[in-house]
Amino acid sequence: MLAGMSEGCRTDEVVEMLRQEALFELPHDFGAGSDLFELGMDSMAVMQLIVIIEERWGVALGAEDASRENLGTPEKLAATIQARQ
Amino acid sequence: MKVDVLVIGGGSAGLAAAVTAARTGARTLLVERNGLLGGMGTAALVHTFCGLYLLDGDRAEIANPGISSEIAERMERATGLGPVKMGRVWVLPQHPVEFASLSDRLIREAGVDLLFHSELVSLEPGWRAEVVCRGARRVIEADSVIDASGDAVGAEFLMGAAEPTEAVRLQRPAYVCGVQGVSGELNSLELSGRIVEGMRAGALTKAALGMHFRASGRAGEIFGTLDLSGEEQGAYDPTDPACLSAIEVAGREVASQVVAYLRDHQRGWGGAYIAHWPIRAGVRESRRWRGRATLTGEEVLAGATHEDDVAWATWPLELRETNRGPKLRYLKDARAAGIPAGALQADGFERLFVAGRCLSCDHEAQASIRVMGTCFATGEAAGRMAVEGVPGGS
């Protein structure tokens, strides 16, 4: 099954969440593959993000998950959440 | 004591103002409440010079050549570290210990008279000021006064000259401490996750959220930075000593808890300890002067210029109205915005100038002009105006 079509967390939901939470300024062409760290996501924003993910999706990410590979883009983020749902 | 120029406050703005005034030959006195110069960059351990360079670009270009360039060059020589690009902005890592020492040398070379451990306790037009050191008063007469106190302290003695920001929107304070004993690479993302784990486990309070660590550039030394709500004891008021006291205590308490938690749970942190506390918490915003002109956030965002511009602001509006991380708003289609001379002149008073984070601007503009790189530039401009007069005006 395609990642974006599964029943778990979807990439578009992550994009929407990032728009709502406004942890950092998002450009107009912000999308599934945008590099969050390049857009200004720092270690402080990562903490906020982990807390928000737990509130929204009930997934408790921790230190081992906090990496560019796991959180770097909305797509990677959705995959990380899904893998833990 | 009689001087040509009295500078109140020896932070980044007051340092630049005093050096600039003294270099023109004016007899200049700098009054500072701590025992070292540099303000937020030394007493509060803020370890990055922001606002030194133009926005964007492939290389770091100094926005306000002059004393900013001199301080940047001396700092680079002292630390061996050059400018770094973070997203769209260039910053210069700075070390508080080096900043204090290079400030001493700048002041001595320029021939500035210096009174450490002194607080302003009165100011009357004309100008007559009183400072207090350990209970003993000293009278200073000056042709010109520059308020670079950060909190518009001079305005306290000239009724109605200052503008406080509403408590709910005030930029939150930062608490920075020095940490040593950590081995191996610093993985800031992993540390973020670890702190959240500590909160989940109930070992850390919500106040720990947002504490982050950065290498100081010196072997084995890192800085820990914590943004506080300022509401540890009622509404945030950075001019109320009871509020400031609660912030200092909360900063130490939360930072201690975080480092203790990481010592037990984070690889490489087994031998970590807090090596030094700041002299004071880092206040970002309090009162501002009402000037002949008031710079607005809209002007900064638009990269606006004015006929009487004396310095360039380049830093984005870095809003920290909560302690949940910064919100950055960048200048649109511009690499800098002009700061007019009028924003550095107190309204209704002659020969009274303002520099640094308490110059005349609105809350949004202050979120850009408060950074140390811009404070060097407004300090330099105020120092020049105090001696040579205002460009194109009285």
UniProtKB/TrEMBL annotation, chain B:
GO terms for molecular function: 4 iron, 4 sulfur cluster binding; metal ion binding; oxidoreductase activity. Keywords: 4Fe-4S, Iron, Iron-sulfur, Metal-binding, Oxidoreductase. The keyword Iron-sulfur applies. SUPFAM superfamilies: FAD/NAD(P)-binding domain. The keyword Amino-acid biosynthesis does not apply. InterPro entries: FAD/NAD-bd_sf, HdrA-like. This is FAD-dependent oxidoreductase. It comes from Haloferula rosea.
